[in-house]
């Protein structure tokens, strides 16, 4: 899966918007949306929220976790913990990326949120890399990592799987013809 | 003892009372000073004094704070305006005290010095001698000596005048900093300066003034920890001691006795104590986590002294005082006019109690002790006897006029209005004074930003206009401005100046008109373009105005309320119609509360909310009373949270609110989010299943009442909405019925049945009761059904006679409704009648012109719809009622199936029409059929108790034989079965429907003799497939049924077309269900 696909999945996450138009309930394959009352928050998928926002048809209500205090707590927790901690949203990076792109004005202290999200991402990626490092070096056959989000898995998967394949090949070569390494 | 409440951040927190004892002032490490109007104040006023505040004191309408700026700052009370620096040190000030007059301040600092400062001119004397930070200070009442404790482990006594050290007492543990000190060692002097009390470890050491010798140590088991602070009560009898382990002990120092002991619930250090200067029974304290608490010494002290008769008297007077206070309502005089705060009787009582209490105590103890001759009198120093003030009756201050959905005026950015149309915000800062108007629906209008040069304070907003108003001041009169953005000409704005001496107090905007209530109690109504339409006078000062379409609701003071209560009345009137006189209704409020919101729902029903969070609606079902439909305070998370209401919808039932954390109204930034709260009629035992159904029923009935009102106003409602509104009520009734039956409450079940509006549900109830073996109940219900049917029949008969007159009357009525009167054309009525006559002659008219004929159409629809409300129309009753009932009823049981093992068997209605396509006529047939069993039932009304089993049995039979209803086969069917093949050959292109029609025609065309033959055959044959007979009946009815031309014409045009097919389906589905579960 490439990031675009993950983002596509993330766009199915629901988010609360305050529409500035009135519309009856609309019926979609994925479920019914609305009714839309001007001024009354309603929950819609992220893709729709972004599209409406771009057409200036709504205001987006930032998700509860997209808050500087909560995120800095989360970041601290992530830094303090040896393992991965559960994230407030399965698609925290994608959701915040999309929202910060299209609805900066609706998110209080958007800059700080952006930095914090980036920090959390970096911390987690560093953890992931180091654990892969340990995993590969220790010649283990399997490892278990909890609370990884889809996006995080997909950043390492293409490389890791092929790298492990290669390693496997090399190792099997090594055991098959022992003298090859001598050359 | 009330729970502690959050006051400041963690850390050292200091507090003091103001001189009146009403307010508590606290300061803490967050650098704020909070002014609490009693311990219960949810909305303490904060003043920022620095980054940290170490100590606070109050004297002469000023409060003094020691801050991290190493200075003592004076601020005015209560507005917190800085009022000069008193003195400055080179390190933080740890403690400061004032003399009784407030002219001299003594402060001790971490820079090892003590200063005595004259407050007025800041002249000071410095006392050097301590070798570590000074912990605390105590000034002797004679103002000659100062005691100071320090981290160097000593307590030093200084002479004020010659700055000399009088005595040094090495009592304490040494440490290097205040934060490391075991105890703050707050000391105090006895009332006459004879002794100084020093907290040393777990004991209070008393040193005599003359020789500085240790007179006594007060050590008690009730004081288990190191004492941190001491504070002498205002009457000088008691010392409150706060320990580092959270114990507060109140000690009678003369008797060396602990009269009250309180343990902090979390065992935190008591950092400060303050006696209420006007109430000797209250000690306020703060702990090391910045919490504020209040300790009442009263009960314990009387218990502690229970041996003395005086204490018994105390209790007696106590009660009297309570009553006295409540009765005299003296309390209310004290109330601040702050309109956002609710009236807190408790706090006020607290502050007022001591005045009266004090007198009584001294009198009582004086007289009683005199009689018993105890020695207490001698030991007690004479207390100043407060003059007895005789207070007359003071009325509750009247609530000020306000705009619904606005936040208080004093805020620099506030909401002037938040309603279902949009938001008006006002910014009122030094550099900006402007108004922002924003619409929820951008289709209404784009957002507007205007500079507020006229200083508008009131606003309202409708879909066509914004109305703004100013209060009058010295220079200019009150002004009303209307921005009519919906206007099609270019002049969008107009203003009008109020007459001299008249100021606008409330404004509102309706549909095509605006209204303003003024201080001279006038309500002035303008059209939206500025024509002065009418004025009227309110019977009292206005509280608020609100509008919906053409309705105006004015809330005003109807008189003086009971102590603490407001006496509000409201008047609803139709601004345009003016025909219907509306009576004045009293506006109920929760006890001691004020109105905080009033408005109309989107459907036009008046709603109010009071400051206790109770939402009420006008219940027209119950003689225009106000019914509580929600209590927003039940929904809040924290005690001091509130909901700020912005709108109400009845369909769907929504209470749109903004949750406000720790306040009553939201701030403009960050932008508050609206949430939707459910309604809940407050009933007893809200958690029981029964109450839940009852609540659902009541709520849906109350919330469905707007339907009839809207219908009366000529608003068209589609059938589906109406059904949706009524369905929950019926569902609730069915469930309630089932519940009552299951719990063997037959009479109750019967009562529930009496609430059921139609036969269909009754029939279902009979079935259910029968199934549950409640045969007696079933019989009674069937009697009820039968009675209803008879009544209905009677009505039908009457109706038939009066039909034509009714018809005219109906149209006549409709012209009298408001919307018709609105147009104000007298010729309208005539036109309507003419049109009708034309229609009757010409038959159905397809094309209608917009003006006259429109009205006509409505009039007719009203007539058609009537039965659904009044059950009166002879032609509609059967079909319409049935179908409504059946969908609802059966669906209810569909739901109930899930909960019960035994599903009830569904009605025996012969529904076999599924195969024929849906159409209007067919339903009429079905309706009749459906009615037949019931009527037959009714005719056999001589049911004796002995026959009750048969009743049930027949019904059971009916159920079980539901599908193949036994019916004689008609001649036509026989003929048809014979000649069907021929027919199909003849008309190969026709569908089933047309084919049968053709067949019918052909059968009719048969010669008479031949038909007779078939008839004979039919008689001889016992039964046949009833589907065919149905068809036949349908057709014969189609042909033969010579209903009056009017209805025949109208029936197809009437609305209930849609639901029919649905209805048939559900019925047949249920029929199938019944069939499959046949025993």
UniProtKB/TrEMBL annotation, chain A:
GO biological process, one term: double-strand break repair via break-induced replication
Domain of life of the organism encoding this protein: Eukaryota
Domain DNA replication complex GINS protein PSF2 N-terminal: 2-61
Pfam families cross-referenced by the UniProt entry: PSF2_N (PF25005), Sld5 (PF05916)
Name of the protein in question: DNA replication complex GINS protein PSF2
GO cellular component terms, A-Z: CMG complex; GINS complex
Compartments reported by the entry: Nucleus
Alphabetical list of PANTHER family matching this protein: DNA REPLICATION COMPLEX GINS PROTEIN PSF2
TrEMBL record, chain B:
Region of interest (Disordered), ranges: 360-384, 786-856, 916-996, 1010-1079
DNA-binding region: 965-1043
InterPro entries: HMG-box_WDHD1, HMG_box_dom, HMG_box_dom_sf, WD40/YVTN_repeat-like_dom_sf, WD40_repeat_dom_sf, WD40_rpt, WD40_WDHD1_1st, WDHD1/CFT4_beta-prop_2nd
Pfam families in the record: Ctf4_C (PF20946), HMG_WDHD1 (PF24815), Mcl1_mid (PF12341), WD40_WDHD1_1st (PF24817)
GO MF annotation list: chromatin binding; DNA binding
Comp. bias regions, Basic and acidic residues: 1035-1044
Record's signal peptide: none
One example of a Gene Ontology biological process annotation: DNA-templated DNA replication
WD repeat residues: 5-37, 127-168
Assigned keywords, A-Z: DNA-binding, Nucleus, Repeat, WD repeat
Protein name per its UniProtKB record: HMG box domain-containing protein
Organism of origin: Littorina saxatilis
